[in-house]
Amino acid sequence: MAGLELLSDQGYRLDGRKATEVRKVQARMGVFAQADGSAYLEQGNTKALAVVYGPHEMRGSRSRTLHDRAVINCQYSMATFSTAERKRRPHGDRKSTEMSLHLKQTFEAAVMTQLYPRSQIDIYVKILQSDGGNYSVCVNAATLAVIDAGIPMRDYVCACTVGFVDETPLADLCYAEESGGVSSLALALLPRGGQIALLQMDARLHQDHLEALIEAAMIACKGVSKVLDEVVRQHLQEVSMLTAE
Amino acid sequence: MKETPLSNCERDFLLKAIEEKKRLDGRQTYDYRTIKVTFGTDYGCCFVDLGKTRVMAQVSCEIVAPKESRPNEGIVFFNIELSPMASPTFEQGRQSELSVKLNRQLERCLRNSKCIDTESLCVVSGEKVWQIRVDVHVLNHDGNLMDASSIAAITALCHFRRPDVSTQGDEITVYSPEERDPIPLSVYHMPICVSFSFFQQGTYLLVDPCEREERVMDGLLMIAMNKHREICSIQSSGGIMLLKEQVMRCSKIASVKVSEITELVGKALENDRKARKAGEKCGFAESLPQERITALKTDKTPVEAMDVTEKVDDIIQKAEVPPLSVPSPSLPVPGVGQVGQNTWGLDEEEEEEEEGEEDRDSSGEEEEKGTKTQKEKDKDEVVELSDSEEEEVVILHPDT
Amino acid sequence: MAADMRLPTIRKPVSVSTFERKDLVVPGDVITSDTGYMRGHGTYVDEEKLTASVAGEVQRVDKLICVRPLKTRFNGEVGDVVVGRVTEVQQKRWKVETNSRLDSVLLLSSVNLPGGELRRRSAEDELTMREYLQEGDLISAEVQSVFADGALSLHTRSLKYGKLGQGVLVQLSPSLIKRQKTHFHNLPCGASIILGNNGFVWLNPTPENQEEDAGGFYTSLEPVNLSDREVISRLRNCLLALAAHKVLLYDTSVLYCYESSLQHQVKDILKPEVMEEIVMLTQQKLLEQEG
Predict the structure, then answer these.
(1) Residue C235 gets which letter from DSSP?
(2) Class of C24-69 per CATH?
(3) Which family is it part of (chain B) (predicted)?
């Protein structure tokens, strides 16, 4: 967008953040009593709701059961009121199918599916308000929901979108920055081992900048993981206080 | 049709071979299969062969109203068709996961990187723009559809010529190819996808997996770059976990491969241009190799024929004397077929006997009896191995 | 009829004691680097370090370390009493949904034939399976064994198990049910309760005649009188109140909760303030009892 300076001379972005700052993350686990696991996460103005059912018996097509592990079934959807203009999004359009596939791929890497042969784990994520970084917020919300459901995971999965402007990597892009034609990279990371579960990048970027960008993404993800860690521990404390006799 | 699962021994074999850095077709870990680029008669039609994977791309254009959000930019539309012709596991009509993945990948690789100048496709701002449509059809699936599709798509776009348009006030005239030469699209750069497949939880890496390798791989990393070393798209798929160093290594390998492939594509485009200029016949039919079996025509292979006799004598002397008598083979009941055992010994004896009989003019019964008893004796010497509970088989001999 | 509405209020922060009494871990936390320990559920070994894979508290029994998550699907053990719903009728067995990670299996040979006969199951029995249990029927059963993939094998080879008739089912988390000697209780208020280990709790009016000659398949369809229905409704709301405050459920706690709730109307019990009050009273009573 012409005229909008994504990174000012003093190093401030459109919303006043510095280049490496991640937006404020607020989250809550166990929001739904009915589901096995649920979580609500806000990252800046992007809000997502994640619900996990499972592991349970394979419903639907029996032929898709895997004899040695669980099938992870993800569904990503955006509410019609989530963007600036109300847009009816039919289920099964290419973008949401692609996102669902990416989410499935991310969680297949992290969830220990070998412990649940012939079962199915469903992860449903809905974006209630979209302000950039949709995929990352979904992953973070779904991680909390999976932990809430008591499904074993190797480690947290934290994701973050970073962009590259004026030779500087910007962490956690908002919608204005994303649509400004900035080359953005989405990274899903398991923080402790530094393993990348998903790497996705669009738009042109010179090869020499790739390392710096991935590095910035990893640092941002580790920051997010600290916040998620806090949330989980707080929730654990609260619930164990309640169950204490 | 449901995909037949890969057998365990095949999977183990492939994985073991990969551990020893060996591939089924003898390639090295970072080698591509032979890439062949051919063009059709029309502008914008391109065939790419990546080993046995065959992909066709066709570019077409038409004038439409532009999108409201971008009134002075043209529209580029990509579509990859996976028809059952390519592989029996592809189903007609259903949008499978693979098809969604490939389509989105191609869109991201070519559209988001802005390789085509869309503003030059504008005819009348806000009213009429060119819509370029790239249709990629997969003709044969032998692994690595993404790379082949991306090469085909970008080559077809470079090859394509759109009709010339002139505006006079409110009138727009679209010239047919006979009136004015069609003009090529302005392609800024050529993004090419390179696929890396990972095995054994990321320990082993292969470039350009073939279909068998794709079945046993853990995950795939696709990097799209152009020859200016700009990365246009990165996508990791499959449930693998990568390390940053692996990604950096792959990007370096990708830059090398991309420059090679871009050179090849450039040469092919150049050749085609020259051929068309010179008026030669060009097109799909011409470029198909004549796959006739030419029995009498063989390429002369050079053979060293010096000192042949000396070499032959040498070899014969050094060789062992072959045994004169053949050990009698164990033979199941005659008439029962057997696999794996050498029955030459017995047959030769029979043939010799028959020949012997024929040599002797219409032999007397005594001689026949003699040969018969001889055969029976042979039969008695033979060890029967048959478990068959069938009735005794009667063999009709040719001389009876 | 007036509808009850309320504006959202900020939740009162639960006062967290400064010291962590329990060993709480999150996925990825290293529990110990000592290789002398055996790893149990909820953990995995990553480069010789014992790491947690779920969020919960660490339980150490001698050399065995396991992590118990806060909330999980029912992991059945031999001898557990479960309440489940039949989802499928297959050849020689029924599939029962018991809130575990795979549907449980009830073999034809593990049920009592009507009339209490003891004989080998014939082909006719296979064909008339649907007359005993159909899809949608609720049963109480006991876990006989666990299959290799984790599915439970149930049996109803006792007169107290079998198809359940008229009553109310309450679905709660399995972690809230206390393990006791018996899970079938006849509460003095006039209702019977079955606390299934899988979190399904069944409330029904106490039958007058305790002898069940039918062997668990006969369900009485006589109308239940109003007083019994009220008692059952009150019990159900009390269960929900206790579950919302994560109080461990067993016959005594349910009874105390019932008694504390008598001053309120049945439908008021579900209001948050009333729930809190009742639960506090219950917890006080429980502490007094133990103290």
Answers:
(1) H
(2) mainly beta
(3) Belongs to the RNase PH family.
Cβ distance of A151 and C54 shorter than 8 Å: yes
Q: Which of helix, strand or coil describes residue C262?
A: helix
Between B168-182, B372-386, C243-257, the lowest mean confidence (pLDDT) is in B372-386
- Asked whether residue B195 falls in the same domain as residue B112, the answer is yes
How far is residue A3 from each of residues A7, A14, A131, measured CA to CA in Å?
12, 12, 20
Chains C+B touching (3+ CB pairs under 8 Å): no
> Looking at A31-40, A76-85, A98-107, B291-300, which range is the least confident one?
B291-300
Task: Count CB neighbours of A162 within 10 A.
Answer: 31
Tell me the mean pLDDT in the region B273-296: 70
Report domain extents, chain A.
25-243
Distance CA B19, CA B204 (A): 7
- Pick the closest to residue B247 from A109, A189, A134, A226 (CA basis): A189
Domain final residue, candidates B287, B318, B336: B287
Model pLDDT for residues B208-223, shown as the tens digit of each residue: 999 999 989 888 999 9
Element (H, E) at C162: strand C162-163
Q: Which is it for strands A25-29 and A37-43: parallel, antiparallel or unpaired? A: antiparallel
Q: Is the pLDDT of residue C119 over 70?
A: yes
> What is the model's pLDDT at position B292?
63
Q: Which amino acid is at B331?
A: L
**Which domain covers residue B382, as residue numbers?**
328-400
Give the C-side interface with A, CB within 8 Å: 14-17, 20-22, 24, 26-28, 42, 44, 46, 51, 53-57, 69-73, 95, 97, 101-103, 149-150, 175, 244-246, 248, 286
